[in-house]
Amino acid sequence: xxxxxxxxxxxxxxxxxxxxxxxxxxxxxxxxxxxxxxxxxxxxxxxxxxxxxxxxxxxxxxxxxxxxxxxxxxxxxxxxxxxxxxxxxxxxxxxxxxxxxxxxxxxxxxxxxxxxxxxxxxxxxxxxxxxxxxxxxxxxxxxxxxxxxxxxxxxxxxxxxxxxxxxxxxxxxxxxxxxxxxxxxxxxxxxxxxxxxxxxxxxxxxxxxxxxxxxxxxxxxxxxxxxxxx
Length: 230
Known about the structure:
CATH class: Alpha Beta
CATH topology: Rossmann fold
Largest sheet: 8 strands, mixed
Strand content: 15-25%
Radius of gyration: 17 Å
Distance between the termini: 27 Å
Number of helices: 6
Low-confidence stretches: 67-81, 223-230
């Protein structure tokens, strides 16, 4: 199963926000991009699935805040809002709905790898458990409800930045797979959540021995679930 450089993966998912205007993807589309029900995804010629994040306020209503319900005139959490899949895993309802659109689009032809950012990273974590392919997630929210690791988390790596508020959302949920936390050196609150910022951080951390150059780290050598790197 082919590896990919983290820097290349970051560039590809960044480009997925601007299909038709980005040279690196223009001639690499394996099929028409998905753009349905406010869900976007791109499959390129080497079997890589790219899932961009939120690009419209509707994404927040449908997906990012999809776990919340109106009750007594205000938002409240409800256990009934969790979406359970066939494996028994409990997922954030909005993120699961987003992932399902992508799953149904590809049908019975899964990708060879998945790369996602933000909302797309939440979907990527869910789909990695379905398809069991190497998955890279940038600026990842937390889609899984439950403290116990899932069986196939070894396929997935999340790259996050300290201080990015999105990576702690929702608070009672958890990431799927390994989490590598990049130190940005910034003080105080600063969102710095977009892919161009994460690409710069990867360059700054290029010499960090705890940050692999490729994912997976080696053929047949996927990291264990829940592993972390500073």
